[in-house]
Amino acid sequence: MGRGPPVEPAVTRPRTARPSPSLGLTLETAHEGPVCGVDEAGRGPWAGPVSAAAVILDPDRVPPGLNDSKKLTAAQREALEAEIRSTALAHAVAFASVAEIAELNILQATGLAMRRAVAALSLRPATALIDGNRVFDLGCRGVAVIGGDGLSASIAAASILAKTARDRVMVEMDVVHPGYGFAEHKGYGVPVHAEALERLGPCPEHRMSYRALQQRLAGRGRA
User: Fold this and answer.
1) How many CA atoms lie less than 13 Å away from 116 in the CB half-sphere?
2) Cβ of 198: how many Cβ atoms within 10 Å?
3) pLDDT tens across 105-121, in order?
4) What is the mean pLDDT of the chain?
5) Distance between CA atoms of 197 and 187, rounded to whole angstroms?
6) In this predicted model, which residue has the larger pLDDT, 212 or 195?
7) What contacts 172, CB < 8 A, 6 or more positions away?
8) Strands of 90-96's sheet, edge to edge?
C-alpha cells in the first residue's frame, strides 16, 4: 500500500486550560486550509450502525454552547444540531452498517464512517481534527486529539451531529424491530436490553460479531 496523508501525533490538552471547547486547535492549523472536526457515535452499543460526522465551522458564526454531546441533554443536542447545520461552512454525517462492523471490526468500521463523512463535505478540508488517539486515513492531513470533543469546538460540533443522527436511526429501528427498547437506550447494553434479548433473541440489527453478545446469548434457552 502507498503512503497515506500526513499523520500527526495525538494531541492532549489539559481540560483545565479550556473549560469549554474552543476554536484554538482549528485556528492553529487554519492557515493550511479548511479544518474539519470529526467524531463518531455508537461504537459501544450492541445494535445498530456506527455513525460519524465531519464539520467545518465558520469562525465568525460558532454556535454558543458547543460541547461533548454526552454532556448535553437531548433537547440541547437537537437545538445545537439545527444551529450547526445552519451556520457551518460544511457538514456531513455518514454511517457504517452492522454488516460492515462484522466484516471489518468496529474500529475499522468507525474509520470507514469517518471517511464517508469527510468525503461528503461540500468543502474539501486540508486538515481533520479527529477525536481520540487514532488517526484514520480520511483523505487529508489527520490530527488525533485525545478528549477532543471537550477541547475543540469543531470536534464537539461533529459529536453532536453524529449523536443526533444515530439516535434518529435507532428510534426508526425501534418501529421496525419492536420490543428491544431501541428508542430509549439506542442499542446500548443496559439491563432492559439484555432482558429483551433473553426473551426475543437477536434481530438483524444486533452486532452478533461482538464476543460479549455471543457469550450472553450462548446460554439462552438453557434450563
Assistant:
1) 16
2) 13
3) 999 999 999 999 999 99
4) 91
5) 11
6) 195
7) none
8) 7-12, 141-146, 127-131, 35-41, 50-56, 90-96
Instruction: Please give the grid coordinates belonging to residue 171.
Output: 428510534
Residues of the chain with CATH 3.30.420.10: 20-169
Strands 35-41, 90-96: pairing is: unpaired
CATH superfamily for 20-169 is Ribonuclease H-like superfamily/Ribonuclease H (3.30.420.10)
The answer to whether residues 41 and 69 touch, using CB atoms and an 8 Å cutoff, is yes
CA–CA gap between residue 140 and residue 190 (Å, rounded): 37
Single-letter amino acid, residue 19? P
Q: What is the distance between the alpha carbons of residues 219 and 42, in angstroms, rounded to a whole number?
A: 26
Q: Cell digits for 200?
A: 426475543
In this prediction the pTM is: 0.89
Length of the chain: 223
d(CA 118, CA 94): 9
